[in-house]
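Section handout, structural biology tutorial.
Before the tutorial, make sure you can parse a SMILES string by hand: atoms, branches in parentheses, ring closures as digits. In the record below the ligand is flavin mononucleotide, and the chain has 291 residues. In the tutorial you will relate the predicted structure tokens back to the input. Do not try to memorize them.
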Amino acid sequence: MITIDPKTVTTGKLHGMLLGAVGPRPIAFASTIDDQGNANLSPFSFFNVFSANPPILIFSPARRVRDNSTKHTLENALATKEVVINVVNYDIVQQMSLSSTEYPTGVNEFEKAGLGMLASEKVKPFRVAEAPVQFECKVNDVIAMGDEGGAGNLVICEVVLMHVKEEVLDADGKIDQHKIDLVARMGGNWYSRANRGMFEIQKPLTTLGIGVDQLPEEIRLSKIFTGNDLGKLANVEKLPTQEEAVAFLKINSEIKAQITNANEIEIHKFAQQYLEKEDVDTAWNIIVANQ
Ligand SMILES: Cc1cc2nc3c(=O)[nH]c(=O)nc-3n(C[C@H](O)[C@H](O)[C@H](O)COP(=O)(O)O)c2cc1C
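Predicted structure of the complex:
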């Protein structure tokens, strides 16, 4: 048994140990708007439901350990007192991860993650169209846990309207736990797909992924690529050039042989096999070489 006195370790180390020990944690995919009306979307796994009457959800955007700065979501929740909390299922997990990229103020993470913006009925922030459940919330209170890096801020949200996709309901109108296919956050890069088990997603690029909005149209509108595929393809700093892709195929003659004379659908299916193996570079080279 090792014993940790929080006062004797760095906040970064303690943070890692806390997150490794407390999980799987549900994910609040929180949509807010700033006082200029700019949309913002980010995930938070310091999250849960705390009351049914009134219906209360709480999530916690923390002060950054590295520089004690605050997150846009917290600033927006304080400024506008409204949040939409969307739940995250497996189908949108890569796009959710991409949306956690620390894009500058005013960048719309719905667009970066390639997720649909659905108007809410009782609050101004948008709902994530793809999320199986969306909670429109008023912020009753924000309680700061401290004023140093790593300090959480409890955003106490009262649900004023809850939307549930019919496709996740069972015959009795209850939420079917297999159909909803929720994912949760664990320590390190680990996630848990509740109805299957653990899987990993590397943290998004700190150098800022290009985002789904910057993908070539034939990729964005591909009938083959899923939202998760797009999330992976968009988490790169830049695309290979045509010359780089051709040079890549020259070295990888087996891949070249498989895609010579292939049509767009075949190319996308072939690239998708590499995305499934988390080999995004090869997927991009295959796509670009054939453009
Ligand atoms: C699955 C997941 C869960 C996260 N949970 C939290 C959390 O509970 N608290 C937090 O401060 N940041 C959390 N983050 C990091 C934020 O999403 C990230 O800092 C984001 O850029 C904040 O965006 P904002 O500045 O637009 O609010 C999480 C990231 C991921 C991918």
